[in-house]
Amino acid sequence: MKVRTVILAVFIVGLSLFYWGAALSQTEEPNDQTLSPYFFVRSDDPSTDRLPLKSTSAEVHISGVIADVRVTQVYKNEGKKPLEAIYIFPASTRAAVYGMKMQIGERTIEAKIKKREEARKEYEEARNQGKSASLLEQQRPNVFQMNVANIMPGDVIRVELKYTELLVPEDRIYEFVYPTVVGPRYSNRAAETAPPSEQWIQNPYLHQGQAPAYDFDIRVNLAAGLPVRDLSSPSHNVKASYTNASTARIELMRGDRTGGNRDYILRYRLDGKRIQSGLLLHEGEKENFFLLMMQPPEKIVSADIPGREYLFIVDVSGSMHGFPLDISKKLMADLVGNLRSSDRFNVLLFAGGSSLLSEASLPATSENIRKAISHIENQTGGGGTEILPALKRVLAIEKEAGISRSIVIATDGYVTVEEEVFDLIRKNLGQANLFAFGIGSSVNRHLIEGMARCGMGESFIITKPEESGEKAERFRKMIQSPVLTQVKVGFDGFDAYDVEPLSVPDVLGDRPVLVFGKWRGKADGKITLKGMTGKGKYLDQIDVVEAKGRKGNPALRYLWARHRITLLSDYNNLRTDEKRVREVTDLGLRYNLLTAYTSFVAVDTRVRSDGKPATAKQPLPLPQGVNDYAVGENMAKSYTAAMPAVSESLSGAFDRTSRSTLKVEEKGKETTKWTLKTLTFSAGMSKEETAKMVRRHLPELEGCAAGANLRGNLELRLVIDSDGAVSSVEVLSSAIRDAAIRKCLAEAVKKWRFPAIPRGRQAKVTVTIDMV
Question: What DSSP designation does 624 have?
């Protein structure tokens, strides 16, 4: 079947000469298409299998506070050509990936950990030589890429990877999360200049509502050590069978085998609502490791706290359209609506641009709260996700002396600028702490948790509407007063070294204090936790001798190394240092761990093909509740990035264009038929910037008339304010009789933002476009 594709161009290709005077002839500019996810389109070639991943499953063993996970991916080539499969998938932000193997029939090949460049080179050489091979790379701490080369017709190849992670209770609730799908990422980076490590962003996606093209299964074996209470999964339908009060096996119900479009979440409590405080030890051949978990004191609630200022940042981009934005509205209404009269607050909404409720923070009066809630409720979601400018704008708000400032951000985190965001937050730690709410069924936990960690705050993940009230209440209780401040951990008679973290921040919630490290000599002495509570001094001790019987914890070496790698990587995000890069690389090689600089590679020795295989990027389902706008708008980000402000009509101009920005997997070029014919403008404006701005938005304008087959001239008359915003626009064209097209054009142009005009002047611009 012939596939019809409608492709919206982003930029005009080529470069010609400018002719200036009263009018400007059209010029062409180099193609600077941005990195974009795109919708999957089946190939016309029936001999090529474009859906090689048949199933992904996980076997999880939870012993106490440590989870060990074995993930199995099954690939099968049902086509007639040798195939290379590429699959992008997520992992827990705490995962320490320590092993991989590949199975082809009866043959099993254990993967080796190597430097990233060496592993990639070995894989590509094997692929080009016709050998079956697999390569596992880390693209983000929570985003992995699997390449499997030379899957022959009829082949079934199983790739198994292993990781371990630590379960940290919050509010005395243990939670195991198995991420299932990577949401489409927004990027404003030019594709042609992006490094290989960023190319994964250009991945195909299924349309909203389409089930994953592969089976999903997960089984959990839980050995908690104490009786289990309130075991449940808010994400999937599960059944639990108990061996005894503290041991259970949890399986998916048969109807949830297509549930690979949302994070799998398992929650439980322990008997008496306790958490497992204590000390775990591991004696290795060369190094000994320990993990300390100490129960904090009970929370001290005090209404007598100083004045506070809350700056709320809400993502209203295309990927938030529908379910995630609805949750954000409910959350913000809850948080803003329950502020105290002594508090001050502000609200910033962002997509491609941003809209601030007030230039200065407002007192939390009933009138201001109603105004803020109305400001949020009017949003529908659309456009790109320019999170960095939004954070910068909020941080630039003048701060009142003597006020404690907190920034609260709500987003799904579908961006690629994690490092830049962490850098910005760290550089402004003295201004405010930051709390991050991840909204959606499969959020970017790396960004959400990383922002909170950098901002010395906490992160909250909301996957369902009914959870927003609970998380908002937890946030309010947390910030009323810290549980423990001036925290110090001491070692008496226990020779500890390489201890992380170096200092323990204030404990804000009901969660244990965690300390990783190594130790020498005898397992003896005491570990002490000191601090200040609302009632005064606090002291707790653990006797190391009592932990001697709990030395069989080999996962501690991986967990310690992963924690150290995370710390070093965070610092590298702030300021890249070759010494730290080498240290992360050495840790990965030494402890057999996947990192940004080390990868797993498995190569079969047999030559099985005599040519380079066809490549198939495995299409991913959109996360449950995420709209098609998350993909369509990313393709259109070349013009949404210049949007001046978010308003209630934010998505109006995008409803047409998002359906015209579908990028097919194999064939087709992006072309723009409409061209800039003439341009006149007032004195004081930059001719280059003005022309560039208009050309950037030509695809958007053409999208308003998609399918109308217009011919002739379109004239736009604009009045531009001193700040570069378009205050009015006239649409003149005898060829356009459809009122809806005229309205779409006018609304689109009103969102343009030109460079500021000097000396506070207004400017008039007339644009003539040839509608070919």
Answer: T
Residue 251: what are its φ and ψ, rounded to 5°? Answer: -130, 155
Instruction: Centre a 10 Å sphere on the Cβ of residue 729 and count the other Cβ atoms it contains.
Output: 19
Q: How many residues does the chain have?
A: 772
Residues paired with residue 223 on neighbouring β-strands, in sequence order: 63, 247
Structure token pair of residue 227:
């009786």
As a whole number of angstroms, the distance between CA 294 and CA 275 comes to 9
Closest among 444, 449, 433, 422 to 572, alpha carbons compared: 422
| Beta strands 215-223 and 53-63, pairing class | parallel
Amino acid symbol at 52:
P
State the amino acid at position 356 in one-letter form. Answer: L
Q: Which amino acid is at 157?
A: I
Q: How is residue 332 annotated by DSSP?
A: H
CA distances from 552 to 163, 165, 557 (A): 17, 16, 11
**Whole-angstrom distance, CA of residue 187 vs CA of residue 332:** 26
> Are residues 181 and 443 in contact, defined by beta-carbon separation less than 8 angstroms?
no
The phi and psi torsions of 624 (rounded to 5 degrees) equal -50, 130
Strands 763-771 and 712-720: antiparallel
> Could you tell me the domains of the chain?
53-187+195-273+594-607 (2.60.40), 308-480 (3.40.50.410), 667-771 (3.30.1150)
Tell me the HSE value of 542 on the side-chain side, using a 13 A CA sphere. Answer: 25
Q: Which residues pair with 70 in a beta bridge?
A: 59, 162
Q: Which residues pair with 769 in a beta bridge?
A: 676, 714
Tell me how far apart the alpha carbons of residues 656 and 31 are, in angstroms, rounded to a whole number.
23
- Exposure class string for 438-468: b at 16+ Cβ within 10 A, else e: bbbbbbbbbbbbbbbbbbbbbbbbbbeeebb
Q: Is the pLDDT of residue 650 over 50?
A: no
**Could you count the other beta carbons within 10 Å of the beta carbon of residue 366?**
9
What would the mean pLDDT of 510-523 be, rounded to a whole number?
Answer: 86
Mean residue pLDDT across the chain: 80
Q: Cβ distance 566 to 584 under 8 Å? A: no
Burial 584-598 (b: 16+ CB within 10 A, else e): bbebbeebbbbbbbb
Q: Are 280 and 527 in contact (CB under 8 A)?
A: no
Q: Which of 272, 264, 232 is nearest to 248 (CA)?
A: 232
Reported as a pLDDT band with limits 50, 70 and 90, residue 31 is very low
Residue partners of 143: CB distance under 8 A and separation at least 6? 88, 89, 90, 91, 182, 200, 446
CA distance 670 to 498: 54
Query: What's the angle, vertex CA 407, arms to CA 404 and CA 410, rounded to 5?
Result: 155
pTM: 0.66
Helix (H, G, I), strand (E, B) or coil at 397: coil
Give the count of beta carbons closer than 10 Å to the beta carbon of residue 59. Answer: 16
| Residue 709 φ then ψ, to 5° | 55, 50
Cis peptide before 501 (omega within 30 of 0): yes
3-class secondary structure per residue, 656-704: HHHHHECCCCCCCCCCCCCEEEEEEECCCCCHHHHHHHHHHCHHHHHHH
State the sign of the Cα–Cα–Cα–Cα dihedral 522, 523, 524, 529. positive
Indicate the pLDDT class of residue 112, thresholds 50, 70 and 90.
very high
* Residue 337 pLDDT class (50, 70, 90 cuts): confident
| β-sheet bridge partners, residue 603 | 133
What is the token pair recorded at 165? 């992670």
CA distance 423 to 426: 5
Q: What are phi and psi of 498, to 5 degrees?
A: 50, 45
Collect all residues with Cβ–Cβ distance below 8 Å to 135 and sequence separation of at least 6.
119, 120, 123, 145, 146, 147, 149, 599, 600, 601, 602
